[in-house]
Amino acid sequence: MAILERHDTGAVAHLHMNAPERLNALSDAMLAELQAALDALREDRAIRAVILSGAGKAFCAGHDLKEMQAGRQAEDGGAAYFADLFARCAAVMRAIRTLPQPVIAQVHGIATAAGCQLVATCDMAVAAEGTRFGVNGVNIGLFCSTPMVALSRNIPRKTAFEMLTTGTFVDTARAEELGLINRAVPAEALGAETMALAELVASKLSTAVRIGKEAFYAQAELDVDAAYELTGRVMVENMLDRDTNEGISAFLEKRDPDWRQ
């Protein structure tokens, strides 16, 4: 049984973490599978949107603590293993952020520590009502420093700091209010609602979405003047695309566009 499954529906790829007995923990094997899947998707022009979900009663409970404790048995106390682990995890998070296709987290149960980081890293998130989100490492003496990177870029800093230092959960209503998720839906509608969002994104011109996603994150790190300079160049690039010209012409002529991408 694969710990990460992929199935495609039209232009939407669905990555399903399938280690329910370990709450889909980001084990060494899971991180490797996610990295490989994301690398393959990067080159797959037939796919225009990606859904990430988890099997069983939880979306993802973060890193595999048993594996982490086993890593301590090395002569250096685990220093090299831990450095490599967090580097590999960061690489997966960066791969999601830099993937040409938008990635939507389909979240249920709990998303804790690096699992919450995964939600915060995805471009959008739809959650089942009753889902809980937390960066709870502080409860066992481990501050969630790497999950903090994505979380503090998604929600207000004071709220992020409170979550990080208290180890308390937020529910779906609060997560939606904070902007950690796009919306909360009844559990029985989670799959359909997430797919509907993915299919809507996938229906757009892939070139425009790819250019826009890259620019979205790049401009967010810049001051206003630099952001406008960057996005002005991006708009020029977008306007010069053949399919953008076709889309605008079709709109003005009140017909469906004949997009090639």
Your description of this structure?
By secondary structure, the chain is α/β, with parallel strands linked by helices. It has 2 domains: 4-202, Alpha-Beta Complex (2-enoyl-CoA Hydratase, Chain A, domain 1), CATH 3.90.226.10; 206-252, Orthogonal Bundle (Lyase 2-enoyl-coa Hydratase, Chain  A, domain 2), CATH 1.10.12. Helix content is 49%, strand content 14%. It has helices spanning 28-42, 65-71, 79-98, 114-121, 145-151, 157-166, 172-178, 190-202, 206-220, 224-239, 242-252; strands spanning 4-9, 12-17, 49-54, 103-107, 110-112, 124-128, 132-134, 183-185. It has a 6-stranded mixed sheet with strand order 1-2-3-4-6-8, with helices on both faces. It has a two-stranded parallel ribbon with strand order 5-7. Strand 1 and strand 2 (12-17) form a beta hairpin. The radius of gyration is 19 Å and the shape is globular. It starts with a strand and ends in a 9-residue tail after the last helix.
